[in-house]
Amino acid sequence: MTRISDNPYVPRKAVLLSRKELSPTCTLYRFRGEGRGPFSFTPGQFLLLTVPGVGEAPFSISSAPSEDGTFEFCIKRVGRVTDHLHRSAREGDVFGIRGPYGRGFPVEEMKGKDVLFIAGGIGYAPLRSVLLHLLKERESVGQISFLYGVNTPVELIFRDEVREQAEAGTVHYWISLMEGDLDDFPAPWSRGLVTDFIPRVPADPENAIALLVGPPVMYRTAVEKLFEKGFREENIFLSLERRMECGIGKCGHCAIGYRYTCVHGPVFPYFEAITLTEAI
Amino acid sequence: MSKPKVGFFGLTSCAGDQLMVLNCEDELLKIAGEFEICEFTMAISGHYDGNLDVAFVEGIVAHEKDLKTLEDVRKRSKILVAFGTCAAYGGLPSMEGKFDFNASLKKVYGEETDFLKKLGTRRASPIDRFVKVDFVLPGCPVERDEFLITLASLRKGTLPEFFRRPLCCECKEKENVCLITEEGEVCCGPLTNSGCGARCPSLGSPCAGCRGPLEEIHFDAKAKVYETMGMPLEKVVEKMKNFSAPAWVVSGMEGK
Amino acid sequence: MLVRSAPPEILETLFSRLSGTGKVYGPVRQGKAVRFLPLSSISDAELSYQRTVLPPKKFFLPPGETLLTFAGRGEWRVPDEEDERIVLFGLHPCDLHGIEILTVFMSDAVPDSPFLRRREKAFIVGLSCLPDDKCFCRSMGCQTSEKGFDIFITLLGDRVLLRAGSPEGYRLLRMLDGEAREPSREDRERLLNFHRLRNESFTLSLDITDLPEVLDLEEESQVWEELGNRCFTCGNCSIVCPTCSCFNVVDIPSFASGETKRVRTWDSCLFRSYALVAGGHNFREKRAQRVKNRYYHKQKGFVEGFGKPSCVGCGRCISSCPAGIDVVSVFKRLTEAYAK
C-alpha cells in the first residue's frame, strides 16, 4: 500500500502582498507563498485558494513562474468565495494555498515556434502566465500573436500591459469586442467574435502552437478555423474548466470520462480533449 | 467593526421560526452581544425605522399589511433572508392553492367577508413573489443549527453555504431502511431539501416535505418514480403541496 | 496461506482475541435494517445477514468528515487522529472488493491520506454468504475474495473454515491452534459443496465481457432518456454504493466557538449542482446526462482508468432505489439492443 506522508488537504500559508482592480469585476491579487521549500509551477497550472473561515476555490495562476515565491491570480467576482475576497481581502492578510496542481501548457515545446494565443474574457488570465514567461526570453520563440475577445471595452483587463506589448511590437494583438469602441489603441480591433481573426493571423501552421482559453463555445469555432488554416490537432492546446473541490483527482466533480481535469488537465492537447465525451 | 444590525419580522405565520430563535437559549446572550437586534416582531415592542444589515422574514403574504411590511423591510435591508418554509415556499398557509380561494373564505368565515376585503386578504404567497430574496433558510421551523451557522457567517461578512441534497442522502447516512421501498409509504424524501438529518424518517415517519422542494423539481415534471411501487407521482406531489404548493403550481405540476 | 478448520464456537475465541486489539464492528440487525455497529459479543452479530444499509466505506470515508479546523486569522489545524485500531468483522466478499477498489483509487496520483490512514489501521475479517435476488457479485467477479482481508471465515454448518490473508491474520490464526486443526477431507468436500451451492443460488446475472465496447456504441441510446425520466436523482444509489466516493467540501462556521470546520460530505454525480461551475454553466444539465454518466463511470470510465469496473454487484443500489431502477436490467437492455 502507498505510504502516506503529507496530508494533501492541508493548505500552506500565502500572504497577500497587493491587490489591483483591473475592471469592475476583476481584481489582480499578488501573493507570496510561505514555507515548505521553493514554489515552482508551470504556466497553466492552478492552485486552490482558501479564504479562511469562508471557503476554498481553484484559480489558474496568471503570473509567470518566478524565483521569489510570489504569484498572481486574476479573479473575477462570480461566487461566494470570490465575492468575499473582493470585499474583504487586505494587504498582509493570510490565506491558504494548495498546489500547484494539474498539467500546464507545454512551454518547452514552444521554443522556436510561432505562438498563437486565443483568449475569451477572463481566459486571458491563465494565458498571461505563458505570455509573460515567453517574454522573459522573447527570442526563444517566433512570432507571438494574441487574439483577445471581450464583450465590452471595460472587460479588457491588463489593458496597460497589452498596450505596452503592442507598442513595443513584442506581441501582435487582435482585439474583438461585442459592443463599444477602443479609442486610440495600438492594436487592430473590431466588433465580432475573437475567432473571426483566425484566418487573418499570419502564422505558419506547420511551425506554430495555438493556446486557447475561453468558454466552451469559443473552442468549437476556434478549433474549426484553426483546422481550416492548417493547424494540426497536436499543436492546439486548450484549458478546460470544471468544478473542483479537491484538486487531486478524488472528489470526482471534474471527471470527464476516466480523466480528471485537475490531474490530467486542465490543459489538454486537442487530440486528447476530442476523445473525452462532453469535453468541448 | 460595528455590530451588524438585524431584524426579525413575522408576516402572517405561526411565529414558530421566531420562537426557534428565542429557543437558542445558550446562544441568546452571545447573539445579542454580537448583533444589534433592532426589531423582533415576537420579542421586542416598539418601532425602528432605520436601515438593517440583515432582515429575517418569517411567514407568508396574506393581506395588504403583510405586503406593506415586506416592501418596507426590503427597502431598509441589505440582505433579506426568507426565514422558514412559509416565507420561502408558501408553507401550510399556501395549501389553499389547491382549492377555490373565495369558496375557502366562505367556508371558514361564512357569508360575511366584508371585513376581509377591508384587510385586503389575498391568496397566501411566499415572499419572493413580491421582493428579491437574498438567501433562503427553509424549515418548519428553521433548523437551529442552520440559523446559528448563518449568524456565524454573517459575522464573517458572508452568507453560509449549505450543501442541499435530497433528504434521502441524510436518511441513508443514518442507515434507515427506505420507507418507500420497504414499507410502501408515500415519502417526500427524494424531492425535499436536506438539512434536518432526516428527522422524521429516522423515527419511522415518512417525510412530509416540510423543508421544501429541491431546486430541480421545478424543472422536471416527468419523473415517474413511484409508479413502479403502485404509487403514482400525483400522490407524492399532492403531499409535497402541503408545504410548497406555489412552487408546484409554477412548475406545471398542478393537476399532474 | 494458512487455513484452519474449527467448530463454530471458535468464533467466540476469535472475537475475544480481536476485541483485545481494537473496537470491533460487525453486522447488527435493528428492525429491518442491518448496520455495521460496535459489537460487545459475537452474539450481537447477525452472521447470516444479507446486506447492510451502508457499506463499510463509512469507516474509511466517514460522511461529514472534518478535514480541517480554522481558528483565528490564518491559523488552521487537522483534527486529532484516532489512534485506535478498528476491527471490521463479517464483511462479505463484495464489500472486501469495494474497499480494495476504493483503496486503489484513493492511492492513485496524490494519495488521500485521511482515507488511507484509516484503512491501514483496520483489521478486516471477511465472512462467506449466499446470494439473494439482488446479488450479482458473481457477474462482477466479486463473489469470492483473494485479498483485502486479514482473516476470512467460511461458515460450513457445524464447522467453520478460517483463512489467513495477511501476516497479522496468520499470527492470529496460529494463536487459535488449540481449538482448530488442518481442514479434513470432509471439510474440503463441504467447502466445495458450499461453493457449488453459492454459485447455483444466483438468480441475477450480467455478462460484462463486452460492456465497455457496447457502451461506446450506445451513447445516444433512448435508454438514457427514459432513465432520466424515471430517476429522481435522489442519490440513494451513490450513498449506499461501496465504491462511490465523490464528495463535496463546505466550510461550516460555528457561532459558539468562532471556529470554522472544513467538512467533506458524500456527494453524487446525479445531483444538478455536481457539474455546475461558478458563473452558471452546467456541464451535465440534463438528468439523463447525469444518469448516463454514473453508469458510464462505473462500467467504462473506471475500467479504462483502473482495469476493472467499479461495481461489485452487492445489490445495494437495487434495494435502495425508490424508483425501482435496477442496474442489471438497464445494462441488459443495452446489450440486447446491441445484439439485435
Spatial strand order of the main sheet of chain B: 2-1-3-4-5
How many runs of DSSP E, i.e. beta strands of chain B? 5
Question: Distance between termini of chain B?
Answer: 53 Å
The SSE order of chain B reads EHHEEHEHHHEHHHHH
Q: Can you summarize the main beta sheet of chain B?
A: 5 strands, parallel
Estimate what percentage of residues of chain B fall within beta strands.
5-15%
Helix/strand-derived class of chain B? alpha/beta
Q: Which structural class do the helices and strands of chain A define?
A: alpha/beta
Given as residue ranges, the uncertain stretches of chain A (5+ residues, pLDDT < 50) are none
Total strands of chain A: 15
Instruction: Characterize the main sheet of chain A.
Output: 7 strands, mixed
Q: What are the segments of chain B in which pLDDT stays under 50 over at least 5 consecutive residues?
A: none
Apparent shape of chain B: globular
Question: H/E series of chain A, N to C?
Answer: EEEEEHEEHEHEEEHEEEHEH
List the helices and strands and how they pair.
The complex is a heterotrimer of chains A (280), B (256) and C (340).
Chain A: E1 12-21, E2 26-33, E3 46-51, E4 55-60, E5 70-76, H1 80-88, E6 94-101, E7 114-120, H2 124-136, E8 144-150, H3 159-168, E9 172-177, E10 189-191, E11 208-213, H4 216-229, E12 236-239, E13 255-256, E14 259-260, H5 261-264, E15 267-269, H6 270-273
Parallel strand pairs in A: 7-8, 7-11, 8-9, 9-10, 11-12
Antiparallel strand pairs in A: 1-2, 1-6, 2-5, 3-4, 3-6, 12-15, 13-14
Chain B: E1 5-10, H1 16-22, H2 28-34, E2 36-40, E3 52-58, H3 64-76, E4 77-83, H4 85-89, H5 101-109, H6 114-119, E5 135-137, H7 144-155, H8 167-173, H9 179-183, H10 199-202, H11 233-250
Parallel strand pairs in B: 1-2, 1-3, 3-4, 4-5
Chain C: E1 3-6, H1 10-19, E2 23-30, E3 33-38, H2 57-60, E4 65-70, E5 76-77, E6 86-91, H3 93-107, H4 113-120, E7 122-127, E8 151-156, E9 159-164, H5 167-175, H6 185-201, H7 211-217, H8 222-230, H9 236-240, E10 247-253, E11 260-266, H10 287-306, H11 316-320, H12 327-339
Parallel strand pairs in C: 2-6, 6-7, 7-8
Antiparallel strand pairs in C: 1-9, 2-3, 4-5, 4-11, 8-9, 10-11
Helix pairs in contact in C: 7-10, 7-12, 8-10
